[in-house]
Amino acid sequence: MSARVIVVGGGVAGLLAARRHARDGAEVTVLEAADRWGGRVSAHEVHGLLLDAGAESFATRSAAVADLARGLGLGGDLVAPTRRPAWVVSPDRAYALPITGWLGIPTRPLQPDVRRVIGWAAAVDAALERGRPLGDVADDATVGSLVRSRLGERVARMLVAPVLQGVYSRPLDELPLAAIDPTLPAQLRAAGSLTALAERRRALAPAGSAVLGVRGGIWRIAQALADAALADGVRLLGGTEAESVVRADGAWHVRAGGGTMTADTLVLATTAAVAGRLVPALDTAPEAAARRVALVTLVLDAPALDAAPRGTGVLATDGVTRAKALTHATAKWRWLREAADGLHVVRLSYALPDPDEDVAAHAVDDAARLLGVPLAPPQVRASRTVVWDDASPARVPDRAPLPGLELVGSAAGLSGLAAIVGAEQRPTPGQPARS
């Protein structure tokens, strides 16, 4: 009899795991509580435009996602964003981030675009970092401690913090370097300096843009994955929530859709909170709710934005707005600019510790402050708010913590398509990798 596998969660991680098991000959069922596939890589409609509800690009630090897209028939639709710098808006100034660098760490501190931000003195100090002895770097060293001690306060506050806090929703002093990539402390020790590490990491990235998108939205990757899973014989049950899970008699018993299904292997492709509810023996992070993020999309009739005054996106610092970041999507993606037919699409990101807060009420004022142009509510043609829980999950020490149990995606502490697809190519020990 074929092995039976139940995957809880129909996002990219769950669909990838489902295909892997199906190709190994298992009988696979995917349970997804929502009525659409893709999770944080899904679509929603705003003013007649089909837009990404979650992620809208993927990192190209490896070729994993691009290769996946090509394998799904989307290679011809991979697109690079418009080449404009991101901006930072603080309470007292607005400035463009240097184009060269890695995680905000400048590889050429004396370049004019770096000096314009941090000044001559700080740039010279940062340029001398390569020659300073590195000393001991603990595996749990934080980004804040390393950058401040090696490159100075201005580099940390004005270049690195805006980039990383927008991604990880944590202060630099609470963000371990290993949380970005578990191998980074060892890579730093091998490189001998932060500047050299940044240079090496940039050199390892594929040529071209640091991120790519898909014409029409990267939700198309998830939809193509769902179609491919069906072709591989996977049973997809949308609108079906896993209500409870019991381990008994060497198998997993999952109650869902008014009945109980039994599996030899259970794959959890959910948030840590849902995984912990279904399998209480898991040690889930209690602070996950504090990493809840709300994305507010506005479709604007705003000719003042035609010139993209703040490039393709803005990072906010020091509480200058309730939003922590903004993406000017029609300035970033040519295909969307053409589809919007003269309107502008902007998306604001908010940390949302209180799920009842109406962050959309701040969106127009925040967008005006970050973009540096006057905007008024009558210019909003449509808006949509989406809330994602556990936006920056904590990595788990073991992705197979119990017999017959796999954790993938957010449940494994992974965020971002590059990390999720890359991990599937390096699966849990004992399982074959898939291209």
From TrEMBL:
It comes from the Bacteria. Residues 12-390 form the Amine oxidase domain. Transmembrane segments: none annotated. InterPro entries: Amino_oxidase, FAD/NAD-bd_sf, Zeta_carotene_desat/Oxidored. Gene3D superfamilies: FAD/NAD(P)-binding domain (3.50.50.60), protoporphyrinogen ix oxidase, domain 3 (1.10.3110.10), Protoporphyrinogen oxidase, mitochondrial, domain 2 (3.90.660.20). Pfam families: Amino_oxidase. GO terms for molecular function: oxidoreductase activity. Coiled coil: none annotated. PANTHER family: PROTOPORPHYRINOGEN OXIDASE. This is FAD-dependent oxidoreductase. It comes from Demequina lignilytica.
